[in-house]
Amino acid sequence: MTQVSLPNYRELDFALAQNELKLHPSELHGLFCGILSGNLDSKVTWETLVPDATKEVLEAHPILETLYTTSAQQLDAFLFEFQLLLPPDADDLPVRAEALTLWCQGFLTGLKLVHIQIVDREQSEITEAINDLVEIAKMNYEEVVSSEEDEAAYVELVEYIRMAVILIYQDLRSDRTTSTKMSSSLHLH
Question: How far apart are CA 100 and CA 4, in angstroms?
Answer without folding.
Answer: 21
